[in-house]
Design goal:
The complex is a heterodimer of chains A (330) and B (310).
Chain A lengths: L1 E10 L8 H7 L9 E3 L5 E3 L3 E9 L7 E14 L3 E12 L8 H5 L4 E4 L5 H8 L11 H13 L15 E9 L3 H4 L4 E5 L4 E8 L5 H24 L7 H15 L14 H9 L3 H35 L14
Parallel strand pairs in A: 6-7, 8-10
Antiparallel strand pairs in A: 1-6, 1-8, 2-3, 3-5, 4-5, 5-6, 5-7, 9-10
Helix pairs in contact in A: 6-7, 6-9, 7-9
Chain B lengths: L19 E10 L1 H6 L1 H20 L7 E7 L9 H14 L6 E4 L11 H6 L22 E3 L1 E2 L2 E2 H6 L6 E2 L2 E2 L10 E3 L1 E2 L6 E2 L1 H12 L4 E2 L2 E2 L20 E3 L9 E8 L4 H11 L6 H13 L12 E5 L1
Parallel strand pairs in B: 1-2, 1-15, 2-3, 15-16
Antiparallel strand pairs in B: 3-14, 4-9, 5-8, 6-7, 10-11, 12-13
């Protein structure tokens, strides 16, 4: 048994933050269904789960042809009224029979994809972790991406983004495995690929509650990636302080308050976050980036203040005063 | 010490509903049958009665069996409830049948403020043809639903490399040979959506199986009519409980005793039901109730639906 999924994360195409009620409207994918929202510790809204039918090949590193049929669960979420995620996943199990059953059979097992023949789980998991998948392989990414687009196209959004960002993709697999010492598998392996793809391989007792962990990780990885990009674009050390501050201001306005790893997760997955905090140390990098931004803004404020003081001195005809006067003159 | 914090809007609340063992539909009539007169209605119930008895005999003597009857007021309107409803009740009684619940077919499209037809439409998950890997949205033909891959002709199939210029339709779960079914769910003459008879009948089955919810609340709510039936169909509540002592309307399984002319309609109904993904929470509530009563219930919704064709 495997659980496989892909989470796409990006900025919502709306100038302002969405309120609780607006999130509900944007995420209403199924009529008569509730969008679940919570306000603590951070505004979060999650759409009802939707199913997509698939009947196609699954990947394998060895090149074995594997046919699978079933449904992929997908859902969209908005965090802080600002960040949108499209997440799809399926529990992959062995089929009881080696032929295609009537569709009602698969709908009675929502979120499961049945593999015909004898699956080699490790080989299949390896296949899912490749950076490029063959075109006819079950495409979780396309399902998540389409869901993102569907929400982005909602008439509730004004389709204007406050700053430019890129979508990140986290493809993940959870395979059944014993503790590290027995099989030599670490419980969590995260790989950053060139571009916006990340892969995550988890070993443990498969449980669909892991989806929330993967979504949380994808969210924080996006925040970090976006913050890094903003810092890079600000050309610190080259551009003028005012320009740097202007380039960094979206981070302060829209992102810095959203960092809360592990806030909405089952306690049993906290150790996974702790592992990732140890290595590579997500919060460590976030903290240092935030400090860098604040320092830049402080430098800019100081230089602004000294420019103002300078011009005031000139206006007052007092060329020797060394006191920095606040801009309002008090 | 551990703090407990919950938010009301973060929880999903789904009401559970009481269930009978079987919901039996005592026939179905088109408006033209009513137009023929009371004798046609009596004849219908005379035919149904022995089969209803047979159905009962297959069940435990204490099994809860509720009966229902659906009146078509959606496609055409005939006479008034004040005239038709008592005639139906009486004709059934003459054959020894009691109609516990009466429903208007239009309630399968709209019930009060709930757009029931839309509710079910959003829960349809298309039967994927081989090769569907999620990379494209399902190949739907707006307003139609099929059980396989539609035929391709001329250019389309040449582009796919077939020589003859034609590729036959194919059933996805075919047993050697295909039985391909393509059902029209609705059309929109003059811009207004009209749901098809099989589509509304599929909704009707889901209602009888107690599987529909609107924001967690049951879609079917029964009314009583105390002081005579109204002179206008719109004034008649969508669902009426005629027999105060009847077991619950919704049931684990349904059985419908119908004229054979409804066979194609019901084949279409089953094609639709086979592609409706009912709410997993509701399904597990129903399964839980069944387990509690020591009942073995089919996993697949469509397998809970049975018929007697006359």
């Amino acid at each position: 048994m495997l659980i496989v999924g892909e989470v796409h994360t990006g900025l919502l195409r709306n100038r302002g933050e969405l309120s609780d009620a607006q999130c509900r409207e944007a995420l209403c994918l199924v009529s008569g269904e509730q969008v679940r929202t919570s306000l603590r510790p951070l505004p979060h809204a999650i759409s009802p789960e939707v199913l997509a039918g698939v009947d196609c090949r699954l990947p394998s590193l060895s090149g074995a042809r594997i046919r699978a049929t079933g449904t992929v669960t997908h859902r969209a979420a908005i965090t802080g009224g600002r960040i949108l995620q499209g997440s799809s996943y399926a529990v992959i199990v062995r089929a009881e029979r080696d032929y295609r059953m009537p569709w009602s059979h698969y709908l009675a097992r929502p979120g499961q994809v049945e593999v015909q023949g004898r699956p080699r789980w490790r080989d299949m998991a390896d296949g899912f972790m490749a950076s490029e998948l063959a075109l006819d392989i079950l495409d979780f990414g396309a399902i998540s991406g389409r869901l993102m687009n569907r929400v982005q196209d909602s008439p509730r959004l004004d389709r204007k983004t406050p700053f430019k960002t890129t979508r990140t993709r986290l493809r993940w697999v959870m395979e059944r495995g014993k503790a590290e010492e027995e099989e030599g598998l670490p419980p969590v392996r995260l790989t950053l690929w060139n571009g916006m793809l990340r892969t995550l391989r988890l070993t443990g007792e498969p449980d669909t509650r892991i989806v929330a962990f993967c979504e949380d990780l994808a969210l924080h990885d996006w925040l970090l990636t976006t913050l890094q990009t903003l810092i890079e674009r600000a050309l610190i050390g080259t551009a003028a302080p005012t320009q740097i501050a202007a380039k960094l201001s979206p981070a302060i306005d829209h992102l810095l308050h959203l960092w809360m790893p592990g806030a909405r997760m089952d306690d049993s997955f906290q150790p996974l976050w702790e592992e990732l905090e140890r290595h590579p140390g997500f919060s460590r990098q976030w903290k240092s980036s935030v400090e860098r931004i604040r320092d830049q803004v402080a430098v800019n404020t100081l230089s602004l203040l000294s420019v103002m003081a300078e011009s005031r001195r000139e206006a007052d005809g007092d060329p020797i005063s060394s006191r920095v006067t606040p801009p309002d003159g008090t | 010490m551990k703090a407990v914090f919950t938010e009301d809007t973060a929880e999903r609340r789904i009401e559970s509903t009481p269930l009978s063992h079987v919901s039996v539909e005592l026939g179905h009539l088109y408006m033209e049958d009513f137009a023929v007169g009371p004798e046609r209605i009596r004849e219908q119930f005379r035919l149904v009665a022995p089969w209803f008895e047979t159905l009962r005999r297959t069940l435990h003597p204490k099994a809860r069996v509720s009966t229902c009857f659906l009146i078509d007021d959606y496609f055409s309107r005939f006479s008034t409830p004040a005239e038709v409803v008592p005639m139906v009740i009486e004709a059934a009684a003459e054959a020894g049948l009691v109609i516990d619940y009466l429903a208007r077919e239009s309630a399968c499209a709209h019930s009060g403020t709930v757009d029931v037809a839309r509710l079910v439409l959003d829960r349809i998950v298309d039967d994927p043809a081989p090769g569907s890997n999620g990379s494209r949205p399902p190949l739907t033909k707006s307003g139609w639903l099929c059980n396989g891959r539609r035929e391709a002709d001329g250019a389309e199939s040449e582009a796919m490399g077939t020589e003859s210029g034609w590729r036959p339709p194919e059933q996805n779960a075919a047993r050697r040979h295909s039985i391909f079914i393509d059902v029209e769910l609705w059309d929109e003459p003059r811009g207004t959506r009209v749901w098809s008879c099989p589509y509304l009948a599929a909704v009707w089955q889901l209602m009888r199986l107690g599987l529909l919810r609107h924001h967690g609340r049951p879609v079917v709510t029964m009314s009583r009519v105390e002081e005579g039936f109204p002179g206008d169909w719109d004034a008649l509540p969508p669902f009426v409980q005629l027999n105060p002592g009847a077991p619950p309307f919704a049931a684990y399984r349904t059985a419908s005793v119908l004229s054979s002319r409804f066979l194609p309609v019901e084949l279409a109904v089953r094609t639709i039901l086979g592609q409706v993904a009912a709410d997993p929470v509701v399904l597990s509530q129903v399964a839980g109730r069944a387990r509690g009563e020591g009942l073995r219930l089919e996993d697949e919704v469509v397998d809970r639906v049975s018929y007697v064709f006359l």
